Amino acid sequence: MPENTPLLSVRDLKKTYQGASGPVEAIGSITFDVRPGELVCIVGPSGCGKTTLLKCLSGLLPPTAGSVTLDGAEVTAPPKKMAVVFQEYGRSLYPWLTVRDNVGLPLKARGVPRRERLAAVERALEEVGLGHALDTYPWQLSGGMQQRVAIARAVAYEPEILVMDEPFAAVDAQTRADLEDLVRRVWQDLGVTVLFVTHDIDESVYLGERVLMLSSSPTVVQQDLAIDLPAARDQLTTRAMPRFTELRTQVYEQIQRAKRGETVAAPS
Amino acid sequence: MPAAPVHPGPVHPGPVPAVRRALASLGYAVGLPVLLVVAWALATRGTTNLYYPPPSRVLTAFVSTWLAPDTLVRDVLPSLGRFAVGVLLSIVIGVVVGTAIGATPWLRALLEPMLEFFRAIPPVVLVPVLMLLLGIDDTMKLAVIVSGSVWPVLLNTIEGVRGTDPVLVDTSRSYRVRGLLAYRYVVLPAASPQIMAGVRLALSIGLILMVISEMFASSSGLGYQIVYFQRQYMVAEMWSGILLLGLVGVAVAAVFQLVERRVLHWYHGSREVARA
Amino acid sequence: MLGTLGVAGFALTWELVAWAEVVNPAYLPRFSTTAARLVTELGEPRFWSALGDTVVTWALGLLIAVAAAVVAGAVIGLVPFLRRATHSTVEFLRPIPSVAIIPLAVLVAGLSREAALVIVVYAPFWQVFIQVLYGVGDVDTVADDTARSFGLGRLQRLRHVVLPTALPYVITGFRLAASIALVLTITAELVIGNPGIGRQIDVYRSAPDAPGLYALVLVTGLLGLLVNLVTRLVERRVLHWHPSVRREGVA
User: Fold this and answer.
1) Considering only the top CATH level, what class is C38-250?
2) CATH for A1-81+177-268?
3) Could you give the ipTM of this predicted complex?
4) Same domain, B119 and B165
5) What pLDDT digit, counting tens, does each position of B70-84 carry?
6) Option in A58, A109, A139 nearest B273 (CB)
7) How far is C155 from chain B (nearest CA, A)?
8) How far is B26 from A139, CA to CA, in rounded Å?
9) Do B73 and B195 share a domain, yes or no?
10) Is C60:C124 a contact under the CB 8 Å cutoff?
11) Does A137 lie at the interface with B, CB-CB under 8 angstroms?
């Protein structure tokens, strides 16, 4: 596939809910592309419909208008080539299955033979540093470790695109830093495309190669910003770079504008 | 894993207090029952009161009545067999139909008021109805047990399936876990705490209906025998029958608890962690 | 409403099955016949006196069960020694199916309301008793210690600390007990033969008077629904008046 063909293509995506007092417009009109191998962060003020957007992208919710295309095929149901990591790690892991079975179930659904499946599960858990926790239950693990299991499940699924919905919103700061580095590493090691949704400005700049800023509801893409930081990132040095601060300020100002409801120039 | 005892109690060094504690537990467990039996024995010593025979006579009657191979094969085992089959049928029907209804919102809205009505009917009044419809045989007795015990399982299953965490549903959908695999690994376990609560009710209702269906229309079985003893004023035998039903009830409760602990170990475990 | 449609669908199915005579019509009357019979039945003094008997037995049984269970539960629950000493006995007595003691009740009290009451009280008693034990066991030790340090006496602590904590449990126990008591009231009438709807059902069965039988079965279902509805209402009302005892406060 040529480098410039987008892997994921979102065109004029619109979502309106039928509220109690008439229709509620959750997403105004969103258009953007993600090219293969990119790590794109989507950042926006809380309540701007990030989760709705993500559900439309992943085929869990039909959009009211517009389209989502993954690898040339329109998304109408959860696609085979996409793995999702949800925000509520405590609720997205099956409490009745061990860590091993949690990671293995999607592979079983896909018909991967047992031996191969177990090997893939172990590999994925090694990758996230949980090779020792195969036979524990998710609820026996800390929040950060649970989210690692969810990431391992996504990794073992071998998707072309990994979609993450504010995955670290509910973990403590230290764990969060570790998990951010884990996402960067997985992205670099496996060459998977990553779409990372967050409300945290610092996180979006630190993680992303590109940051898409959303406006408040009804949501549109306010700005599409390339993050020109070096690829090897480090919690201490990267965050201390003057360029990091500049980018952060830029994103911050856009979000503040978005909160005030000012629309800005069309996305680049 | 948090496993702190609720009452740590005073701390003693050495192994002796552990033994003492175990003895104390045993004492608490058997103390009152022993006391009650002794009191009963003393109160009935030497009396010829027809209604309250001494425990020794009840025990003798128990052995001679219920452990006789004849009664065991003719009355006890068939009763227990009908109970087991009836409750198992209720569980299977309740879970299969319940998951189907629970997963289909329009079907649920359509059927729920009717199902609530059926559950509200005292199960025993279906005995006369089923006697009319099916006559007096094993099918009718099974039908009576099922017609009473299926509702708690069915309604709890519907409730459990409906209450499945939407995040888990989304997770399963996005990882394309579907069909039988989703049924086995997502739908059933998610509803299992509710299902087990329903099964517990089904067991006690089933036991009651087993007895009732035999009291009404039978010439054998536990329920029939107990009523027969009462009518013949064979009081010690009647008491022994009540004792047997009590033991069956306790055994059923114990087996249920064992199974429940196994099936829901993840549920109890995660709740314990959440509370800590 | 879809639910109304479901009820209509059930009635229609019944009507059609009976009309097609899948079963002998003497055993399965049509829905319309049964409904008409229900209306006639409502005009009969016999029906109302049976219903009255049932309601009185139920209410008496429930009252005795709840009162006894609350007293016994509170005493045993508040004294750790009694709690431990009675545990095994309770666990043995509780699962005994209430119908097992029907012969005993008949033997002791004859074919009377008193015999029925033994059955009606037995199972609901355990239901409430266990709930009271849970409720009393749930009393926050910090709250109790606080009350004690403020010099509240035993009775005052009972009134201001134990009662509010245990109340939701008692009410839940009451709601469950009310349904069970109704089931057992009708069961007792059917089996023992003391006056009430249950006995009337047995009369219609042996007549045999199928429309009457089915009509009364419908009545028992409606009665059950009514009890559920009322107790749920009571539960909501009482717990609403005691916002301090909501679950959040307990946890």
Assistant:
1) mainly alpha
2) 3.40.50.300
3) 0.87
4) yes
5) 888 888 899 999 999
6) A139
7) 25
8) 34
9) yes
10) no
11) yes
